[in-house]
Design brief:
The chain is an alpha/beta fold. The protein has twelve helices and ten strands.
């Protein structure tokens, strides 16, 4: 009785823009495997053609992942070798590749990481923020984005996000509302001809990209939350009043605006009320 040998699933990191950013090992494996499963076959075909690789391609993306996962697993069960690649970068990060990996692991199929480019790490290291501790949140959801941001209010680690160009300005506005005007780096079209790294405040980034709508792939990097000692940030009374007024102009009630500004600075609402009134005892006024 013979024992069937299972195949191997290789997770191959591919360029996020510049086709030269690919390892020799990835090129060798893409040429040697029986099948390349690609999130975007058109994009992957450019890479394969550039290096003269003629391995068969199949699509594996969010809309066909259930059907294609079974087909790929069937080939792996029969001993085939398959290279999984994403649209760009490392597969399994904010793409359906993670589902295929989980299924392969469950069946005892060998899964091999083959490191390569990563937009997350490229944006992080070029941001100028702390890199020793960070958190990756992927794409914010279309609905409930502010709830996700609320959970990051006190996050001291650097935060990395993906965003589409058409939603960038709206996301920056949400970040400003929920997290305040902290420092941000907007990495656009990394490694490509029109690469851009914008560094500044959220307010400045919003103004920049509202005036000049962005194109291409975007990775956002946010500085972590500052210490909550209100005195160290020391906003003056005029600044606090202006922030409250801005929120009211956007449709918030005065109590809502006061609560939001208090959250931004990590202070109790009573303390903020007292500062706005310049009350020596910090006694709050009556809410409207």
């Amino acid at each position: 009785m013979t024992t069937r040998t299972l195949g191997t699933l290789y997770l191959c990191g591919t360029p996020i823009g510049n086709l030269e950013d690919v390892t020799l090992r990835v090129l060798r494996l893409l040429a040697e495997v029986d099948l390349v499963a690609a999130e975007d076959t058109r994009q992957t075909r450019k890479l394969l053609s550039h290096y003269g690789i003629r391995t068969p391609l199949t699509s594996f993306h969010a809309y066909n992942r259930k059907k294609k996962a079974e087909e790929i697993l069937a080939r792996l069960r029969r001993g085939a070798s398959v290279a999984l690649v994403s649209d760009a970068g490392t597969p399994g990060i904010s793409d359906p590749g993670a589902d295929l990996v989980a299924l392969a692991v469950r069946e005892g199929i060998r899964v091999v990481p083959v490191p390569g480019p990563s937009a997350v790490l490229a944006a992080l290291v070029v941001s100028g923020f702390r890199t020793d501790r960070f958190v990756f949140e992927g794409f914010l959801p279309r609905k409930g984005r502010k709830r996700v941001l609320e959970a990051l209010r006190d996050e001291r680690r650097t935060v990395v996000l993906f965003e589409s160009p058409r939603r960038l300005v709206a996301t920056l506005e949400d970040i400003l509302d929920v997290l305040g005007d902290r420092e941000v780096a907007v990495a656009r079209e990394l490694t490509k001809q029109h690469e851009e790294i914008f560094r500044g405040t959220v307010t400045a980034a919003r103004a920049r990209f509202a005036a000049q709508p962005p194109r291409g792939e975007i990775t956002l990097v946010l500085a972590g939350a500052a210490h909550k000692e209100f005195a160290t940030r020391n906003p003056d009374r005029e600044t606090l009043a202006a922030e409250v007024a801005e929120l009211q102009a956007r449709g918030r009630t005065r109590p809502e605006a006061l609560r939001e500004v208090a959250r931004r600075y990590g202070v109790r609402r009573r303390e903020l009320y007292g500062l706005l009134l310049n009350a020596p005892n910090g006694d709050p006024p009556q809410e409207e």
